[in-house]
Amino acid sequence: MLVAASQRERITGVIRQSPIPALRLLSVNEIDSTIVLKGTVGSYYHKQLAQELVKPLLDGKQLINSVDVSSK
Questions:
Q1: Model confidence band, residue 3 (pLDDT cutoffs 50, 70, 90)
Q2: Pair 35, 54: CB distance under 8 Å
Q3: What are phi and psi of 34, to 5 degrees?
Q4: pLDDT tens, residue by residue, 40-61
Q5: Does residue 63 contact residue 34 with C-beta atoms inside 8 Å?
Q6: How far is CA 32 from the centre of its chain?
Q7: Looking at residues 63-71, what average pLDDT do you find?
Q8: Is beta strand 34-41 parallel, antiparallel or unpaired with respect to 27-31?
Q9: Please, are residues 15 and 24 in contact by the beta-carbon 8 Å criterion?
Q10: Where are the beta strands (DSSP E) in the chain?
Q11: Which of 43, 44, 49, 66 has the lowest CB atom count within 10 Å?
């Protein structure tokens, strides 16, 4: 019997397949009807890109993009 992956697992899978290494290190949490992205990236572009990768998988849930931007 196949068990469907949770929404968090699906979103994590998409993030892990990103060609951008910094995005693959982000964490995804699911709290009630909210998906929370956390971690650090090197540019606002990458922060926005992470959000855009996740948007199609939200299924009506709210997204909180708590990704920090740090120029090293």
A1: very low
A2: yes
A3: -130, 135
A4: 999 999 999 999 999 999 989 9
A5: yes
A6: 16
A7: 94
A8: antiparallel
A9: yes
A10: 27-31, 34-41, 62-69
A11: 44
Please give the structure tokens belonging to residue 52.
Answer: 């855009």
User: Is residue 50 within 8 Å of 37, Cβ to Cβ?
Assistant: yes
The structure's pTM equals 0.85
Of 45, 53, 42, 50, nearest in space to 66 by CA: 50
Tallying the residues shown for the chain, one arrives at 72
Q: List b or e across 33-68, with b for residues whose CB sees 16 or more CB atoms inside 10 angstroms.
A: eebbbebebeeeebbebbeebbeebeeeeebeeebe
Query: How much is the CA Rg of the chain, to the nearest whole Å?
Result: 12
